[in-house]
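#structure-requests
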Amino acid sequence: MSAEASKALKVITGVSRFQATSERYSVARAAAGLVEAFPVPVGNQTICTVFTARGTPRFELRVTWDLQDGPPTAKPAREYTVLKMGEKTLVAHNKANVFFACRSEQLSNSSRLAHVVVRVEHWAIPSDPGDYADTLRDAYATVAHSFSLAMAKELRCEKNGGLPERPVLEPA
């Protein structure tokens, strides 16, 4: 995770200490699972879950990946802001979805594109973010970008799946 994403996690959770979920959850293992699944669409596969450390207010952030059969075409729900990262990035005050296309020698039939979605979501009842909606959207986008870029690099996607080295937080 990037230093920017670590700071963004503090914005989202209000704390700067976290505990590991399990060694069986990592970007490397998630990428291996995607390589194994390709080209069959798969949904809601865990990359990791971020928990605040013991002794701090409880907060759980789920990071997952999907393998879709094509690029995103649906019009986003009103709650989302569209950003210019990958094929499409959708962010709200409590979640972000980064869609990117990956062509890689690691994927069987490497002439086909893998359409990957990395999701970061706070699994709790949504609350009104008040005056912090824009700050939270940027924080979720930053965390989702960090995991997406790490996944694209782990998969060795051409041009990192179209993801920039730093998150782009300006609306499309």
